[in-house]
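FW: tagging you since you asked about this chain on Friday. Here's the raw sequence from the shared folder, copied in full. Didn't touch anything.
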Amino acid sequence: MAKITASVFTSHVPAIGAAMDLGKTKEDYWKPLFAGYDFSKQWMKDNKPDVIFLVYNDHATAFSLDMIPTFAIGTAAEFKPADEGWGPRPVPLVKGHPELASHIAQSVIQQDFDLTIVNKMDVDHGLTVPLSLMCGELDPVKDAWPCPVIPFAVNVVQYPVPSGQRCFNLGQAIRKAVESYDEDIHVHIWGTGGMSHQLQGARAGLINREWDNVWLDQLINDPVACAQTPHIDYVREAGSEGIELVMWLIARGAMSDINDGQATGPAPQLRHRFYHVPASNTAVGHVILENV
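HL: got it, structure written out here
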């Protein structure tokens, strides 16, 4: 059967992608951030999955305010990098895995989670920046991402947005779906977005280093409690865009120590943890967990 072997958590700040695309990664401002992913790029080469299930949020490219699904799974064979106003990022085409994606959709819907099935969409920086951070800079014509990617978009842009508990429970359903797939493949699940940041209003530029790191401690060591963090805490402590962190709970809920909403098995192994501020006006968090 298929199995989830690891989870990856990372911010997906658009300015990170721009720094890579414009050759700025060696500049003094950016060097400390990219150094935090040196381990991750080597780990990715040493632990290459067969498929990545990548949880992210669309930034009004595939979905507009006319129609916003709470949870949307990409089932297409390929996904083009989106033009977010200044042209598509110069990165390879994202190859999908329609068979596994369709299987996950079938299984998760039968577990009473409503998913929107998307057969055609472009993917923005929310998905391509994490791939670039973990896989390095690739030529859009000559190179390819190391494996197929299943995009899973979550609405954390327009309220109402799903609760952390709902996302945590969904992660468990996704793991059950993967494990019922009749092919011996290894799957990574990635949770992206966050950490603390606010892009508008009187608190624009907010970064809360202390709260971010306490939240990371809890995500790793006590995910059941972390899932119960209410929306108001994210907004108050991590800024209006800090709510993106609920997407990390989908990936954490999919790890093998979580069953029926509780941590019942061996805790996953922490392989890497990194935190850096600022990247543009955002705090960057990054964690790699491996199932035991």
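FW: The radius of gyration is 17 Å.
HL: agreed, and Residues 58 and 147 are 21 Å apart (CA to CA).
FW: great, closing this out.
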